[in-house]
Amino acid sequence: MESAEKLWYVLHTYSGYENKVKTNLESRVSSMNMDNYIFRVIVPEEEETKTKDGKAKTEMIKTFPGYVLVEMVMTDESWFVVRNTPGVTGFVGSHGGGSKPSPLLPEEVAKILHEMGMSTQRANLTFEVGETVSIIGGAFSGLEGKIIDNDADKQKLRVTTTMFDREVTAEVDYDQVDKLA
């Protein structure tokens, strides 16, 4: 059963090799022309601030050591490419014997990505500062806004919009806006 749907899967890796697996998989995607099947590769991590010798030090710690998330369309080819990436020991939710793994539930993905300050939608759109967009989600839904800042890495925009005859600035995710036709 091949799915043409982009879904999130969890890879099991050797602990400590999560970032290496991410790098290896991203280069394999490019070299093996899998860009239309394998999209984002994420190592879930969060900032942790520790105080040592009276100095605060912020570092990134792995939320799920030994695991990497991958957004992909599951086909025999994409499954093979991911499974055979150095450092990957297998998919979580695969029952062996050549069975395809189960994807994460959308709400699980949303929670993990939200905690990392990322959006669940990978907008294939590009947004330009100065462009006007329609806000379709969040507190400013139904309004139009002009983009004043674009953080493509975090998939967030800062837009100005008018509410109650006042100009206000809002931060919105890519998946909360639509381009105007």
TrEMBL record:
SMART domains linked to this entry: KOW, NGN
Location of the KOW domain: 126-153
UniProt-listed SUPFAM superfamilies: N-utilization substance G protein NusG, N-terminal domain, Translation proteins SH3-like domain
Gene3D superfamilies: 2.30.30.30, NusG, N-terminal domain
GO biological process: DNA-templated transcription elongation; DNA-templated transcription termination; regulation of DNA-templated transcription elongation; transcription antitermination
Domain NusG-like N-terminal: from-to ranges: 5-116
A Pfam family per the record: NusG
InterPro entries reported for this sequence: KOW, NGN, NGN-like_dom, NGN_dom_sf, NusG-like, Rib_uL2_dom2, Transcrpt_antiterm_NusG, Translation_prot_SH3-like_sf
Domain of life: Bacteria
Keywords linked to the UniProt accession: Transcription, Transcription antitermination, Transcription regulation, Transcription termination
GO cellular component, one term: cytosol
HAMAP family associated with the record: NusG
Function noted in UniProt: Participates in transcription elongation, termination and antitermination.
Similarity comment: family membership: Belongs to the NusG family.
Protein name: Transcription termination/antitermination protein NusG
Gene: nusG
